[in-house]
Write a structure and sequence with these properties.
The complex is a heterodimer. By secondary structure, chain A is mainly β. Chain A has 2 helices and 28 strands. Chain B is of the alpha+beta class. The chains are: A mainly beta, B alpha+beta. Chain B: Keywords: Coiled coil, Nucleus.
């Protein structure tokens, strides 16, 4: 007899990204597997999608049972943040090869021993200076020059691991398990400012803990959430402008996109809201917890939501789910 | 004038001869002379003479008549003279007439002679022609003649040349195809050789025939001897019986069983033969018996033979039988037969469900564990083998749940995936049942027994491949099925032993080789049976049900694990194929609200670590379930200690309480030092 209950049933997607052409979706899961879906083919296919079509077009394992915490798209490479290292794969390999060799690697410094390798929880790329920011499990945010692959600088300040980072115009924001949201100048130095959402009664949720799972930033506003409620802060005054009225048990995705806010986490819904807290859309999600949401406008509008489920929800209009992908 | 003179001469001669004494001679001579004269004289002159004479006569007559007219004396004289002249002329005429006649006779004679000559020649010619024809036909006949030798098959020339003695063949070494004589001689030689050979072979045949007769005699003699030996041997056997009994040998019993085996229906016989062989070679903890009455079985066999004949009869008139039921049967014989059947449908039902009086019972025992009796019976009309079983549960198993997994039906169910033994593997069965007005096969199972496909295969019946009575099929299956049954029995016993303890809320002791901590604060507080229905009703089982991982045929339990105020409810689903598929757990934690895999990633993670993360190669029926429950307790400890460190004091060793974006908890145990938990 075959054991039908296998570990794929319990799979969780932690990170997603689109290829530079936008036709493919690349996802990374907790078992160290990167799966590639042919998105454009599926969205054009319309209603006649079989179970086979929902499966990945290509999949390969980087390292068995080592989480793929973050993915990042660059022009020539797919950048993969796993545990203890960042790997670069050429796109051609990613799309077709079953066992691609990586083009380059960056070891996270200070990884003391094999037992305690830091997770690379979040990767962002600053194209102007060719800088790669990595939020890591050893409480630091590292900055690497992508050309030389050398560490340029390191932001130290968090007391626990860093969940997420974001930047806008030389301002870098990071949120950590310790409940701190720190603002940095990309060019270096100590934190410019610091907020502690869990200490504000308006947003704190003691039963969920202080951790910050998602941060977003634009020129005037800062968005953060996690254990504390999702809230919008005014950057200069560092005061809470909006507390979003959503029903969740922890925020893992928070993003400022144009004049809207995307938010997801341990909730059955994925939210789009305006800055003043009005809910624009609520999208029901397959996973218990949403860990990743990526979107693109070109070549076609797509929003992909994934989390603690082998299923990935795809919305081609940002309003309702019209396609589901499956890892197995 | 010459004529006249000659005729005158004659007259004188004849006158003189006649005057002579030998009148007859003269006549004869004159006749001869006249004849000669007639022949020698030409006819033309005679004809001329004749005409002239006739003319003279006429002249004379005319003179006479003239004279007569004239009267005178001289006339008279003249007349007389003239008359005399006429008379003389008349004589001449007469002579001419005679000669003519003579001349006519001669040619006539000559003609007749010539004619005769021609006739004879003609005759001769005919004869010769006939003879020629005859000869021709004979000649042809000769050519068509076929000699007998042409029908004789001769050895080919090459062989003849090679094999015949030299003195026969030397002549033909340089054989010329065109030489007819040589060809003939060769044929003769070959024929002679053939004759020799045949004579030789005939001799040989005779000899062999004789030998055969002799051997036949020999055989008959020996058979006689052997026949006499039979009774002797049986009497010896009889005599040795007390000795056998004294020594405790069971030759008789085995013999009786083998005799009984010959009465088994074919499928069961195959099974019996193979299982008995398997038992003798591989498995001493197994016994095979044939159950049933020998008398009945032999009756059955006779009946079967009779029925076969009857069936053949019926085949000839297939329509008739259906009509029989409704119509009055014409023949007396048939009426008699029919009158015995009170209700034909009932009778048919009975016949269809008739079981062969003999069945094979296999008893499988495990070392100091339960034993199972599996009884295979054969339904001849349905052509299926049914299984009934009974398990002898050892006395140390007392708990309800534990006894349940060892219950009769439960042990053998799903030996092969999806094989519940409730649907007849024979595709004909539904039609057969419908024909006699019976419902589905499932409703008959309690009466007939289970029809597992492995049982059919062990008996050499394979319905998919339409193979029936295949010894090879039976052979290959007996071993694997018996091994499976034994393994199943063992794993069920192991499971029962664990359940026995679990029912008393004790987690069985794990062997030292299992990498798990032995001390936990959480403990098992309740263990009870569950049902598929209750499993479906629970909200936290949705995901597992949706993925169709649970079947109603699985065995369900409910476990509760408690630590202080928190209690963890777990549905435990044990698959029939335990332990090759580990039990599946569905979890629900009651602590500050209900948390389960549908609303809490960490519970989902815990479920995963229990359900999936087992290294199946090392899993063992004896401790798999216990180990899972043990790790469930540990999981609860970790969950509570990391979730709410203020309330629950840390007991487990872990490095980080959470890590990475998904805030994983350290459910993975590493056997380092006292044991460390990592993500």
């Amino acid at each position: 007899m075959v054991n039908k209950l296998n570990k794929s049933f319990y799979n969780t997607v932690l990170s997603q990204t689109f290829t530079p052409c936008g036709n493919y979706l690349v996802v990374g899961d907790i078992y160290g597997t990167i799966s590639v879906f042919h998105l454009s083919k599926l969205t054009n296919q319309g209603s006649s999608i079989t179970k086979e079509d929902q499966l990945p077009k290509n999949a390969f394992t980087i390292k068995e049972d080592v989480q793929i915490n973050s993915l990042l798209t660059m022009k020539a490479f797919l950048v993969v943040g796993t545990v203890g290292e960042i790997l670069g794969y050429s796109w051609k390999n990613v799309k077709t090869s079953k066992k691609p060799s990586c083009s380059w690697t960056i070891e996270i410094p200070n990884s003391k021993d094999s037992f305690d390798k830091p997770d690379v929880n979040c990767l962002v790329f600053e194209p102007e200076n060719n800088l790669l920011f990595a939020a890591c499990g050893d409480n630091n945010v590292y900055v690497f020059n992508i050309e030389t692959r050398k560490e340029v600088r390191c932001f130290k300040g968090h007391k626990n691991y860093v969940h997420c980072i974001n930047f806008c115009n030389n301002k870098l924001v990071s949120g950590g398990e310790d409940g701190l949201v720190l603002l940095w100048d990309v060019r270096g130095g100590p934190p410019v400012s610091k907020i502690e959402p869990h200490s504000r009664d308006k947003v704190a949720r003691v039963e969920l803990g202080p951790w910050i799972g998602g941060v977003g930033i634009n020129d005037d506003w800062l968005l953060c959430g996690g254990g504390p409620r999702l809230s919008l802060w005014h950057l200069r005054s560092l005061n809470i402008a909006t507390v979003f009225p959503i029903d969740d048990k922890g925020i893992h995705v928070a993003e400022v996109y144009q004049d809207r806010i995307f938010a997801g986490g341990r909730s059955n819904l994925f939210y789009q809201m305006s800055f003043n807290g009005d809910i624009i859309t609520e999208i029901p999600t397959s996973p218990v917890t949403t860990y990743s949401a990526v979107h693109q406008d070109e070549p076609f509008q797509t929003l992909c939501i994934a989390g603690s489920s082998p299923k990935i929800d795809v919305c081609s209009n940002f309003i309702y789910k019209n396609l589901q992908l499956s890892l197995y | 004038m010459v004529k006249e003179s000659s005729s005158l001469k004659k007259k004188r001669k004849s006158g003189t001869s006649a005057d002579n004494e030998a009148e007859i001679d003269i006549y004869k001579k004159s006749v001869e002379f006249e004849e000669k004269e007639a022949l020698n004289r030409p006819n033309d002159t005679d004809a001329q003479i004749y005409f002239n004479t006739c003319k003279e006569i006429r002249h004379l007559f005319a003179e006479i008549s003239e004279l007569k007219m004239k009267s005178g004396s001289d006339v008279r004289a003249k007349i007389t003279e003239k008359t005399t002249e006429v008379c003389l002329l008349l004589v001449l005429l007469k002579k001419l007439n005679r000669m003519e006649k003579v001349r006519l006779v001669f040619p006539k004679e000559q003609l007749a002679a010539e004619k005769q000559k021609v006739d004879s020649i003609n005759l001769q010619y005919q004869n010769l022609l006939y003879e020629a024809n005859h000869l021709m036909s004979e000649y042809r006949k000769c050519f068509q003649f076929k000699s007998k030798d042409e029908h004789i098959e001769l050895v080919p020339v090459e062989e003849f040349l090679a094999e015949a003695p030299k003195n026969l063949t030397t002549k033909f070494k340089k054989f010329d195809e065109t030489d007819e004589m040589a060809k003939h001689e060769l044929r003769l030689a070959r024929l002679e050789w053939e004759l020799q050979q045949r004579i030789h072979l005939a001799d040989m045949c005779k000899k062999l025939e004789e030998e055969k007769k002799k051997l036949e005699g020999d055989i008959a003699e020996r058979r006689n001897k052997l026949d006499k030996l039979g009774p002797l041997l049986s009497s010896v056997m009889e005599a040795t019986k007390p000795v056998q009994e004294h020594l405790g040998l069971h030759i008789d019993k085995i013999q009786a069983e083998h005799k009984l085996a010959s009465l088994l229906p074919n499928p069961l016989y195959l099974f019996y033969a193979n299982i008995d062989a398997y038992r003798q070679v591989n498995d001493s903890g197994m016994s095979v018996e044939i159950m049933g009455d020998q008398e009945e079985a032999s009756q059955w066999k006779e009946l079967e033979l009779a029925e076969d004949e009857e069936e053949e009869e019926e085949d000839m008139e297939p329509e008739a039988e259906i009509q029989e039921v409704e119509e009055i049967v014409e023949t007396k014989k048939r009426r008699h037969r029919k009158s015995v059947h009170v209700d034909p449908l009932e009778e048919k039902k009975r016949k269809l469900l008739q079981v062969h009086p003999l069945s094979v019972q296999v008893t499988v025992t495990t070392k100091d564990g339960p034993s199972i009796k599996i009884r295979l019976s054969y339904y001849a009309k349905l052509e299926i083998v049914t299984v009934s079983s009974s398990v002898n549960i050892p006395s140390n198993i007392t708990g309800n749940a534990a006894r349940e997994v060892l219950s009769n039906e439960s042990v053998l169910v799903e030996l092969v995936e999806g094989d519940f033994g409730l649907d007849s593997p024979n595709p004909c069965t539904p039609y057969q049942l419908k024909k006699v007005g019976l419902g589905s096969f499932q409703s008959l199972v309690p009466e007939l027994g289970y029809v597992y496909t492995w049982a059919q295969k062990m008996c050499g019946i394979d319905f998919l491949n339409k193979m029936s009575g295949s010894d090879q099929l039976s052979q290959t299956n007996v071993e694997s099925v018996m091994k499976t049954i034994k393994k199943r029995l063992k794993s069920r016993y192991a499971l029962a032993k664990q359940l026995e303890e679990l029912e008393r809320n004790v987690i069985p002791v794990l062997p030292a080789s299992v990498d798990l901590p032995r001390t936990t604060i959480s403990s098992l507080t309740k263990w009870s049976s569950g049902t598929y229905q209750s499993f479906c009703e629970a909200k936290f089982t949705e995901g597992l049900l949706e993925a169709e991982l649970i079947s109603p045929n699985d065995i369900f339990y409910k476990a509760t694990i408690t630590r202080d105020k928190a209690n963890l409810q777990a549905f435990v689903v044990i698959k029939n194929d335990y332990p090759s598929i580990p039990p599946i757990f569905a979890l629900c934690l009651n602590y500050n609200g209900t948390r389960h895999s549908q609303n809490d990633d960490n519970i989902r993670d815990m479920e995963r670590s229990i359900n999936v993360d087992w290294n199946h190669e090392f899993s063992n029926a004896n401790w798999l379930l216990s180990a899972q429950i043990m790790s469930l307790c540990v999981g609860l400890d970790i969950y509570l200690e990391t979730e709410d460190p203020g309330t629950f004091q840390q007991n487990t060793m872990y490095i980080k309480s959470t890590c990475a974006r998904n805030r994983r908890k350290p459910f993975k145990f590493r056997n380092i030092g006292v044991g460390v938990y990592t993500q």
